[in-house]
Amino acid sequence: MTAVITIHTSKPGRTGLTALICLALLTACTPTGSTGTTASTNIGAPIIGTNEPPPTASNTEVPPPYALSFEPMPVSAPPQLVAEAAAITQRFVGTLLPTLQLAIASGGPVHAIEVCAVQAPQIAQQLSEDTGWNVRRVSLKTRNSSAATPDAWEVMALNMFDERQRGGQAGADINVAEIVGREFRYMQAQPAAPLCLTCHGNDIAPDVRSVLEQRYPDDMATGYFNGQIRGAITLRKDI
Ligand code: HEC
Predict the structure, then answer these.
(1) Beta partners for residue 21, in sequence order
(2) DSSP 8-state secondary structure symbol assigned to residue 181
(3) Smallest Cα–Cα separation from 85: which of 204, 179, 157, 205?
């Protein structure tokens, strides 16, 4: 399996995601279970602190002829932790997706709402207990605001995910890994597939809509289109 690393450095003075190391895992969202991830074996050393000129010529400032970087040195995400986090997100998706598909097939979407509401947090909790990582789901447009409201780092990552998706990158390939303080943090985008639109799309059946409205009066998680980033699985671990 191949993996591609891109490093994005923020402008000086910006806080938060100073170094976003985006790992394009080609099978990141396929429900193949935890054994499908071999990311750690193929991650090359990231290129840090390049002396490349600024990307646009519209800069009025003349850049110094040699590297005079005011940016903090990006800290590369340890490949082993990246691989571990990627495997956990695969387990999450690989457990939830079949459960959801089965629930829809056996009892219809209204019944599946219950499954999503109960099982998804349970899967996240079980994974947290099994692995020692903190695992949850977040979104910029939450359905369950008490469980899925992102923190500042997650908001920045989710905005970046949207940008990358709009730029043409497939959601399954969009993720971020970063050391933040004493924590390792990882997020994997969750793109909306056609199945998801049953409960997150524009054209939601009236019975589904009415149950959603009853259960989630502040629901913001509708109106998505196929491929759009619905949210993310977010992981953190003390290091
Ligand atoms: C049967 C309806 C249904 C389907 C289909 C469905 N979801 Fe959801 N989704 C829900 C419900 C209900 C919640 C709120 C769960 C809770 O209470 O924690 C939710 C919550 C989420 C969240 C957590 C953030 C939030 O807004 O609360 C994400 C991310 C998410 N769904 C993504 C997806 C994706 C991706 C798919 C397709 C693979 C999908 N959903 C399919 C009903 C559905």
Answers:
(1) 7, 177
(2) T
(3) 179
